[in-house]
Amino acid sequence: MIRGELRVALAGIVALVTLVAFEAMAVSTAMPVVADELGGLRRYGLAFSLFLTASLLGTVLAGGWADARGPRTPVVAGLLAFAGGLVLCGTAPTFTLLLLGRAVSGLGGGLLVVSLYAVVGAVFDEAVRPRVFAWISSAWVVPAVVGPLAAGWLATAWSWRAVFLLVAPLAVVVGAVLLPRLWHLGAPAADPGAAPRQGLLSQRSRALRGLGVAAGAGLAQAGAAELVPLRLLPVVSVVVGVLAVVVALPALLPAGTLRAERGLPSVIAVRGLMTAGFMGAEAYVPLMLVLERGLPVTLAGLALTGAALGWTLGSALQGRRGLRVDRSRLMALGGLLVAGAVGLLVLPSLHLLPGLAVLGVWALGGLGMGLTLSSTSVLTLSLSPADLRGRHSAALQLSDALGAVVGIGVAGAVFAARLGAAPDLHGDLAGAGGAPSADGGATFALVFGGLSLVGLMAAAVALRVRPAGGWPNEPGTADRAASVAGP
């Protein structure tokens, strides 16, 4: 049971996540209208991927920051940046300034999510962490139901700017309530008897490498959006950006992550693959339903509701008391569900399945994400020493954000290239619905078909999550890997 002050702390965390979730659901629903009004359809994917790119830097900074000084200060900094970015988005006169606001909010989001992971690791015992993460996932339920409807109504009946401006003051209020509950949390102590940490990057080195990853990812995305017609500058931008990520990234992840070695490295790798496949597709689900199937913005946003509800159910299932399914198999199942759901999106894109069927299909993908991502959160804390939880949580979120950036970026490059070849691809997105695209949905089918393969890769890597020596504190047999207390 979670009692007393712990319950109050959990309520504050859930309230803050609820606001972040509402912003995510609302912005995803309203973005087709925003891009159409500000002339940003060609750069549509950047509105999502730049948020995530900036969050890469935030996650890197927050990890070492939380380990060295505790989570209080990064929570404050994250709240200010998140709210400030929302205000900039809501007042942006051009799509370029809106993208800048999304980047500022992303920086704050990266700081917040890692800091909250550090809070969970410091405040809650291992035995209740699966249920804590289930509660955190449940914070998406109300935003999933209300967010798309509210955002769709605001964007079409009033102004899409209210979608951003209404969330910012609420975030500040929730933060003011939560922060007093965190003020006693200082830097975590090292595990007694642990060997001295060798080879850890300084906070300055981490910041520089995080900046390198974020800048490299941003350069690669900007170049990829302009590759067609083929020109020298976009090609150079992509090459330089990818090289920057390749050079800066490995030292920010546990050794062996990029090779998917057993244990924690594979946990981190699975997280990135899952978000690449799912988030890359989800950014284009509302656009496909509006642009290709002619659904109203509000109705198209309900597909995100189905995904969030499925996600919450999956997270609740992985946190059930007495669950005895090996988490590596649970995560592999989640990868297969995401691969199947993303692959099925090809059918409505090609008018082989009704557009409304996407609500059920995408709920299946959300179920897979809930089973897998909540498990990666539990495993990261369980497999990390207390004084490295901040850094390892940052690595998990770095993989999460970078995976989404890659998925959305590649999908955006394909979409921009096809849009360049068919400039009449869109209709009036601010109205009741768009007209069918010039290519009959082949662009969306290509994007979704490719991303489904990434889900299959995640399922394969998930089978390597189980450490070679078995789970920590495993009672007896190798078959009994996960209980309510986690692995």
Fold and architecture overview:
With 487 residues, the protein is mostly helical. The chain has a single domain, classed as Growth Hormone, Chain: A, CATH 1.20.1250.
Considering DSSP H and I runs of 4 or more, what fraction of the residues is helical? over 70%
Radius of gyration: 21 Å
Gross morphology is: globular
H/E element order: HHHHHHHHHHHHHHHHHH
Structural class: mainly alpha
CATH topology: Growth Hormone, Chain: A
What's the overall average pLDDT, rounded? 79
Q: CA-to-CA gap between the ends? A: 19 Å
CATH superfamily: MFS general substrate transporter like domains
CATH class annotation = Mainly Alpha
Q: How many DSSP-defined strands?
A: 0
- Total tally of structural domains: 1
The name of the CATH architecture is Up-down Bundle
Described by strand count, sense and barrel closure, the largest sheet is: none
What is the tally of helical segments?
18
Measured by DSSP, the beta-strand proportion falls in under 5%
What's the short version?
This protein has one domain (4-183, 253-462): Growth Hormone, Chain: A, CATH 1.20.1250. It has 18 helices and no strands.
